[in-house]
Amino acid sequence: MPRFPHGLHALNITQFLGAMNDNILKLLIIFSLIQLQGTEKAGIITASVGAAFALPFLLFSAPAGCLADRYSKRSVSVGVKQMEVVVTALAVVLFALQQTWGLYLLMFLMSAQSALFSPTKYGIIPELAPREELSHANGLIEAFTFFAIIIGTVLGPALTQAVSGRFWLAACFCLAISVIGLVAAQRLPDVPAIAPDRVIRLFPAEIFRTLRRVRHDHRLMLAIIGLAWFWLLGAFAQLNLISYGIQRLGYSGAQSGYLFLASAFGIAVGSLLAARLSGSGVSWGIVVLGGFGLTAASVLLQLVPSSSYPVIAVILLYGISAGLFSLPLQTFIQLQAEAEIRGEVLAASSFVNWIGILIASGLTFLFSGPLHLSAAQGFSLMGILNLLVVIVGIRLLSRIRIDGR
């Protein structure tokens, strides 16, 4: 088992607490809105919150990538965590006011600080871990990220039930976690800036310039697109599971939130398994295996009996398959991108990921609204689409290998 430097553990703690806080707050916002507007609007509410969560990643990915290259990633991390403390303090106030627009604004602001942190947290990993241990380092970060999602998923509904609808009180817990995350970020090593002369770009035009710059690397572009598809599927599953639990299992909104546990635990297991199977390299075969598993699990969510244990088993399979699918792609992007533009490439990848997440919100709204599909039917339809994507990906990968690019 590899031994990692102290800085990687500080990053792991910082990311763990941030991911946990994001998920707690997101669920608190969803549950609060459902309480205010009614369970019959659960699908539309989750889609709208998902859109508010995705939009900052489209708006701020460009400056986030430039910040990750121009300044020390430790300085960026500390600054972002200071912003998180301010946002969670604001959450206490906005939950107390119980105004719908304020809750959507809160989601936007929380997502904005996560967007600014994203290129930094992934870009600093190759600066903290040796190249030969990069897959293991990514596996560790990804696993603990999804363990954070698991804990956040437990605490979101649990806090909702414990405070009996006084969501401002639950937000006080989020504020405490954000303060601890700030302390952890301050323990990161002061790594040097990669490109101190980098101009800060405020608009996504820089993202498109970066994508044009790397478009000749067909394998890198395929990995970027594949990772975006993973995030589309993951976002759709997260948004759809609450409606699925209400419709299929007769759960309340808060009880449906516990279904995220199986998914997040599965992704953590799948990420660790992918890291072990990959060794010191990257295996595209693991990605294909995960893709087929995602299709099987998606279709099974409509076919399994309406009982908790079979449903949880299938959701667990969905998560494991997602972990197998995503980890090799993330590692490949980090390895393949040139060091001097790694932050920009990761920011561009993040931007494309969040386009996928925004599309997932649109699909959730489309399926639950105009098309009047059940949540189970939505899962099944996405599984069929995923099968087509995997088949196309296999064909493209075969051509790339033949061309040698």
Mean pLDDT: 84
> Any idea how many domains?
1
Strand content: under 5%
Tell me the span between the first and last alpha carbons.
33 Å
Main sheet attributes: strand count, strand direction, barrel closure: none
Structural classification? mainly alpha
In the predicted model, the low-confidence regions spanning at least 5 consecutive residues are: none
Shape: globular
Order of helices and strands: HHHHHHHHHHHHHHH
Number of helices: 15
- The CATH architecture can be given as Up-down Bundle
The CATH class: Mainly Alpha
Percent range of helical residues: over 70%
**CATH H-tier superfamily:** MFS general substrate transporter like domains
Structure description:
The protein is mainly α and 405 residues long. The chain has a single domain (6-186, 203-403), classed as Growth Hormone, Chain: A, CATH 1.20.1250. It is built from 15 helices and no strands. The chain has helices at residues 6-37, 42-70, 73-97, 100-123, 125-128, 134-162, 167-185, 205-214, 218-249, 253-257, 259-278, 284-303, 308-336, 342-368, 375-403. Helix 9 runs antiparallel to helix 15. The chain is globular and about 50 Å long. The mean pLDDT is 84.
What is the element layout, followed by pairings?
Elements: H1 6-37, H2 42-70, H3 73-97, H4 100-123, H5 125-128, H6 134-162, H7 167-185, H8 205-214, H9 218-249, H10 253-257, H11 259-278, H12 284-303, H13 308-336, H14 342-368, H15 375-403
